[in-house]
Specification:
This protein folds into two domains: 34 residues; 191 residues, Cytochrome Bc1 Complex, Chain D, domain 2, CATH 1.10.760.10. With 229 residues, it is mainly α. Helix 3 packs across helix 4 and helix 5 crosses helix 8. Helices cover 41% and strands 0% of the residues. The termini are far apart. The relative contact order is 0.15. The longest helix has 28 residues. The structure holds heme C.
């Protein structure tokens, strides 16, 4: 069979295609097909991110104009808008949202992604991404402070001198405060991965995950909402 080209084509072309379709398409589907797809409101009902409250406290007037009060409703609105901005600005051109079970990606970015994490409205369209000009963002929540994100969106090279990420000056109003889109995209980015119960990277009171994780600033999982995925 392996002597003929047809045999190789059969195994490589059809055999491996069928195998990957089975393992990566059908298998996850059979595991999760009866899990409901969460709406943004259901995600928000799991708990309001401390980072969203932080934006309200830091920029009270602007926050009031954009989102009103801190509530599940305004949190859901910010998440949905942040997700739209992420899609519209093509952040996914440079950032993936998928921790693969290879190349020690879990040491670099945190727990390997599983299918259930994508079973919600904020993953439509699925934002796996195709390449990584910048780092994977699926565990970005809590890795950085809101302040850091604000500085970074204003001018990425101000915090990462060698960065090739474009500046997003249109995330800010004329006074330099984050505008509605800016606050929304920061809320969205701070949400990414926050559903993991044992999330090791939060900034705050010291490492809470496995000691093999890189020494990012950490936040205690207790201050995070319960799992969303
Ligand atoms: C041209 C490619 C490119 C685009 C487009 C891009 N980024 Fe980036 N991004 C990068 C690179 C490269 C880095 C790593 C260097 C740095 O920190 O700026 C990065 C870093 C980041 C980080 C910090 C990750 C960390 O914790 O170190 C965040 C958050 C981020 N990007 C979010 C976004 C968002 C949101 C958008 C869309 C509004 C976006 N990026 C668009 C290239 C890009």
């Amino acid at each position: 069979m392996f002597e003929s080209k047809a045999g190789v084509f059969l195994i490589a072309g059809i055999g491996f295609f069928a195998l990957s379709f089975l393992v990566m398409g059908l298998l996850p589907w059979t595991i999760y097909y009866n899990e409901p797809e969460l709406t943004v409101e259901q995600i928000a009902a799991k708990g309001i991110l401390p980072d969203f409250v932080d934006l309200a406290e830091r920029f009270p007037d602007q926050f009031k104009d954009h989102f009103g009060e801190v509530s599940e409703k305004s949190f859901a609105e910010a998440l949905a808008l942040g997700h739209q901005v992420y899609v519209a600005e093509a952040c996914w051109h440079c950032h993936s949202q998928f921790i693969r079970p290879v190349s020690n990606e879990d040491l670099r970015w945190g727990p390997v992604s599983h299918a259930l994490e994508y079973q919600n409205r904020l993953q439509r369209p699925v934002l796996f991404g195709t390449r990584r000009v910048g780092p994977d963002l699926s565990r970005e929540g809590g890795v950085r402070s809101n302040d850091w994100h604000i500085a970074h969106f204003w001018d990425p090279t101000s915090v990462t001198p060698s960065s090739v990420m474009p500046a997003y000056k249109w995330f800010f109003d004329a006074d330099g405060y984050p505008n509605k889109r800016g606050m929304a995209v920061i809320t969205y980015v701070q949400w990414l991965g926050s559903w993991l119960k044992e999330y090791p990277y939060y900034h705050g009171d010291g490492p809470s995950g496995p000691t093999t994780q890189p020494a990012f600033p950490t936040r205690t999982p207790a201050s995070r909402p319960a799992a969303a995925g």
